[in-house]
């Protein structure tokens, strides 16, 4: 067993424990801001170190834990998402949340859960990683002790999340019963289209779709996104979703790859329903977090459609889109956090006059939203192009047309937010933005534009990672 | 002679009872108990499959130990959250969790 392959996971765990110790050491009345920066620096260091692991293809713990390019790609995505979230959450945590040390430590444990999910090569590891992530998120969603909405969101997320994992486990038990194994590659060898196997596969798909907030398993998402502290909402959209995709790709393209004719139709309908519901319902939202929740439901539908291709091009499209969506979400939520810190509300109306008060943040929000909508030259356009060409090759032309129509409609409600930002300011209060939040905003702005104009390097990397599956 | 089918039937019944409780119970604690029932149905399933399908390897039974541990953690968080909700609104009725709706 080669323990060196686990260095990033061990480092994240140690960093989380260190944050808890530092939290106790700092006197209560002093600021705990430094903990956020320590965590961010640590995560950045782990991210840089993980670059050296590319090219590895090995398993640890008798094949239960795999380290390959695909896992590494997802791990770097989670590390980058956590890094950006930590940076823009410092002021928010100081202002709205007590127990900031525990907040940062829990965020790192959630990151650890996601990293385990990305490397899961059997159903036990996958389940443990997913529950580590989910249980930490239940606590984090209800972390804003002074807000009634936060406790309600936490309770709802916990009840529905626990129920969905019970349903998924029941599915896993049937898959285990039919194939006699929990390791993905061995399930693939014995999988045949029997009722027990299809029941297990269907229940597992339902459980994963809950984590991805795919319609019709999306009902929790708007409430939880609205009630959770804004940085946690961002993490749910960027991290938890991408982690579920990492598991989905491995389970459905390795273990259930021979059953593709059975799941392809259902997955295409789920993707189409998510695009339609996510985009149509978002039009009427007045709360920015709720609007972004519906938009993330639609984005999950887009990414899910890549699974239908079932080849390197499709997975490459999914990976590429997950990264650009991560940067766009980081930008949008960083700006939402700044606005919430400024006037204490999440309503879209609160954005009025942002362009006069802070032109930089208004530009970042505009670019991020347009990238999600998929307008050229932003990154979202290229991402949709990769996804749609991959599935059009497989004959899903109707889904491609639906996706294009829906993304045109989505421009409308994204532009409503932009219009509000460039309207006249309601108050003349000075708008103060902390440096670290501005750094996140600039990173997301540059990434959305750079990936859109020059997609080559990221596309190559995503292609390289996708090839690990075949 | 009691065979695999008997265990699976019991598990399916327990799972169905849990699912029914999840959809009909009106207090948060009752919902958490229903979820526990569903998880225990999974445990019966896993142990039965482990005993009858793969008697030589203990994969299923090992999995059960993990699900029991995870279920305990879930309930711990769940009850903590029940306390929070009770402190906020003096009730644990699920229908009163209605601050947000679209």
UniProtKB/TrEMBL annotation, chain A:
Segments traversing the membrane: 6-26, 35-52, 72-90, 102-120, 126-145, 157-176, 196-220, 232-256, 262-284, 291-313, 319-339, 360-383, 395-415, 436-454
Keyword Nucleus: no
Organism: bioreactor metagenome
Lineage, broadest ranks: unclassified sequences, metagenomes, ecological metagenomes
Domain named NADH:quinone oxidoreductase/Mrp antiporter transmembrane: residues: 120-410
UniProt GO BP: ATP synthesis coupled electron transport
EC code: 1.6.5.11
Cellular component, GO annotation: membrane
Membrane topology: Multi-pass membrane protein
Cellular compartment(s): Membrane
Keyword list, A-Z: Membrane, Oxidoreductase, Transmembrane, Transmembrane helix
GO molecular function list: NADH dehydrogenase (ubiquinone) activity; oxidoreductase activity
Protein name: NADH-quinone oxidoreductase subunit N
Pfam families for this protein: Proton_antipo_M
Protein's gene: nuoN_2
TrEMBL record, chain B:
Enzyme class: oxidoreductase
TM segment ranges: 6-23, 30-50, 62-86
InterPro entries: NADH_UbQ_OxRdtase_chain4L/K (IPR001133), NUOK/Mnh_C1-like (IPR039428)
Bilayer topology: Multi-pass membrane protein
Localization in the cell: Membrane
Pfam family, one: Oxidored_q2
Annotated Gene3D superfamilies: 1.10.287.3510
GO cellular component, one term: NADH dehydrogenase complex
Keywords: Membrane, Oxidoreductase, Transmembrane, Transmembrane helix, Transport
EC identifiers of the protein: 1.6.5.11
Gene Ontology MF terms in the entry: oxidoreductase activity, acting on NAD(P)H
Coiled coil residues, start to end: none
GO BP terms in the entry: ATP synthesis coupled electron transport
NCBIfam families membership: PRK05715.1-2, PRK05715.1-3, PRK05715.1-4, PRK05715.1-5
Family of the protein in this entry: Belongs to the complex I subunit 4L family.
Protein name: NADH-quinone oxidoreductase subunit 11
Organism: bioreactor metagenome
Species classification: unclassified sequences, metagenomes, ecological metagenomes
């Amino acid at each position: 067993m080669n323990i060196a392959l686990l260095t990033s996971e061990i480092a994240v765990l140690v960093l989380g424990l260190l944050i808890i110790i530092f939290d106790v050491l700092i006197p209560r009345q002093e600021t705990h801001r430094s903990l956020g920066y320590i965590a961010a620096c640590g995560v950045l260091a782990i991210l840089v170190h993980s670059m050296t692991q590319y090219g590895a293809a090995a398993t640890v713990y008798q094949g239960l834990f795999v380290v390959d390019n695909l896992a590494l790609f997802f791990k770097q995505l989670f590390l980058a998402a956590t890094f950006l979230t930590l940076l823009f959450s410092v002021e928010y945590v100081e202002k709205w949340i007590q127990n900031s040390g525990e907040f940062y430590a829990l965020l790192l444990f959630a990151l650890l859960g996601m990293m385990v999910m990305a490397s899961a090569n059997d159903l036990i590891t996958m389940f443990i990683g997913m529950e580590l992530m989910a249980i930490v998120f239940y606590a984090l969603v209800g972390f804003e002790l002074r807000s009634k909405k936060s406790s309600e969101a936490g309770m709802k997320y916990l009840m529905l999340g626990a129920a969905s994992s019970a349903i998924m486990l029941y599915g896993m038990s049937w898959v285990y019963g039919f194939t006699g194994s929990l390791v993905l590659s061995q399930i693939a060898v014995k999988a045949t289209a029997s009722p027990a196997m299809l029941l297990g596969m269907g229940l597992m798909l339902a459980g994963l779709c809950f984590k991805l907030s795919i319609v019709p398993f999306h009902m929790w998402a708007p409430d939880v996104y609205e009630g959770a502290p804004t940085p946690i909402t961002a993490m749910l959209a960027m991290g938890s979703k991408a982690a579920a995709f990492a598991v989905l790709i491995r389970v459905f393209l390795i273990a259930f790859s021979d059953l593709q004719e059975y799941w392809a139709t259902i997955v295409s309908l789920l993707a189409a329903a998510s695009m339609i519901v996510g985009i149509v319902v978002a039009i009427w939202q007045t709360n920015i977090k709720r609007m972004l929740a519906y938009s993330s439901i639609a984005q999950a539908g887009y990414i899910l459609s890549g699974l239908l291709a079932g080849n390197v091009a499709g997975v490459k499209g999914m990976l590429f889109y997950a990264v650009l969506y991560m940067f766009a979400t980081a930008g949008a939520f960083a700006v939402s956090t700044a606005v919430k810190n400024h006037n204490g509300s999440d309503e879209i109306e609160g954005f009025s006059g942002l362009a006069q008060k802070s032109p930089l943040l208004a530009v970042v929000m505009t670019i991020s939203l347009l990238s999600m909508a998929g307008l050229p030259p932003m990154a979202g356009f290229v991402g949709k192009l990769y996804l749609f060409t991959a599935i059009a090759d497989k004959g899903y032309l109707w889904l491609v047309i639906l996706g294009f129509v829906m993304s045109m409609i989505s421009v409308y409600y994204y532009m409503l937010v932009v219009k509000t930002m460039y309207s006249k300011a309601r108050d003349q209060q000075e708008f103060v933005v902390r440096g670290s939040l501005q750094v996140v905003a600039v990173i997301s702005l540059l990434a959305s534009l750079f990936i859109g104009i020059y997609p080559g390097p990221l596309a190559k990397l995503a292609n390289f990672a996708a090839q690990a599956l075949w | 002679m009691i065979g695999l089918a008997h265990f699976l039937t019991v598990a399916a019944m327990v799972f169905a009872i849990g699912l029914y409780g999840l959809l009909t119970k009106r207090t948060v604690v009752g919902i958490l108990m229903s979820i526990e029932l569903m998880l225990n149905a999974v445990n019966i399933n896993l142990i039965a499959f482990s005993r009858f399908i793969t008697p030589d390897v203990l994969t299923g039974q090992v999995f059960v130990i993990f699900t029991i541990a995870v279920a305990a953690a879930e309930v711990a968080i769940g009850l903590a959250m029940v306390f929070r909700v009770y402190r906020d609104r003096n009730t644990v009725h699920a229908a009163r969790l209605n601050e947000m709706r679209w």
